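Need tokens for this chain, all 213 residues.
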Amino acid sequence: MSVIRVVLVDDQALFRAGIRMVVASQPDLEVVGEASDGAQAIEVVRQTRPDVVLMDIRMPVMDGLAATEALLADADPPKVVMLTTFDLDEAAARAIQRGASGFLLKDADPEFLLAAIRTVHAGSSVIAAAATRELFAQLHEPVRAVPPSFQELTEREREIFALAARGLSNAEIAAREFLSEATVKTHVSRILSKLSLRDRVQLVVFAFEHGLA
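Here are the structure tokens for all 213 residues:
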């Protein structure tokens, strides 16, 4: 069984200790490092090469947003999940824009935290597209020009893009468009590939950034 390597980053030692206990209780998870600020986090992550980083947003010396941006610029970066106390956190939205795999509330249930680590490691995001839409609706940023790659989408793909950008699931899109879920999944995969997006969460971010939401 492969073990998922985790680094904890938070300026509160007691909070880190609690998370460490939860993670260490699982046979498929291992805490390989801890840090109390963003600058220290960069050092620890580069030394230990974890699979997943749980990153607090607000910390002294360097905040989680700056640390995340630095780490995700590395070759073969870890997956980063932001830890926040606010449900609709503007800083969490900015972290997702910069490539974080989502965010968790600090008071999340232990079972949800563990599931999130495994989900992110498997290549998915831990924030649903619908929640991403709600989060980004709070931001009021200048709209960027739509890139040429968007013009490569077929008419059907643009229809599905619009529905996915509204946070609809594959099943909901399938029912609305009278398609099978498998067909919708194929269309979404093609859309992500053409737009060079990682997942549906990034699709929602793309829609908001370019005024397509």
